[in-house]
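Why do we bother with holo predictions? Because pocket geometry can differ from the apo form. Keep that in mind while you read this record for zinc ion.
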Amino acid sequence: MVKWFNTTQYKFRVDRYEEVDRQLQALGISTDKVRSVILTHLHLDHIDGLRHFPNTHIIVNKAEWEKPYGDLPQLYPAGFSPELVELTDAYDVFEKAYYVTKARDIVLVQTPGHTWHHCSVILKTEQSHVFFGADICYEQTQVIEDKYSGANASHKLSKDTYARVRAFCENHKTIYIPSHEAAAADRLTRLQYVVA
Ligand SMILES: [Zn+2]
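The structure, written out:
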């Protein structure tokens, strides 16, 4: 059912300048300078840009790889073989975590619901935390107001993840960035923290 939906029910229009390589270029970053790419989950709109990173180290939660939800492997680049990491640590309210850097300032945390093992990436800076929440919700207000965002593998897991994200944001100054919310970029520039 999910596969039928993903392959027949919509079409994306992505202009060339909107693709990730051009977006990075505009910021003065070349794709071959990117050391690692972290995939939060395997949905088509999160993996389609992989073709711009043919030699880059790609990280995926092993559990997500082994039990994907609504993935489209036919869109993976040829010979795609990411590093599968196990989230055996814990971080704050998140029971499953993986420290990406030695400095422990980039953390992959399991935030399930949207898919069974969906992940988010938390970047710790001196001023605050930047929480890349991927598709936990589509707009920050959904998580703050506890409004179900739809399109989830599990409502129950999603609700639990919402509660953990709110708890995290109560304890830490956090800028929350869902993948699909245009206003998130503004919050990052203006350092607008979540008030949960
Ligand atoms: Zn998704």
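The first helix runs from residue 2 to 8.
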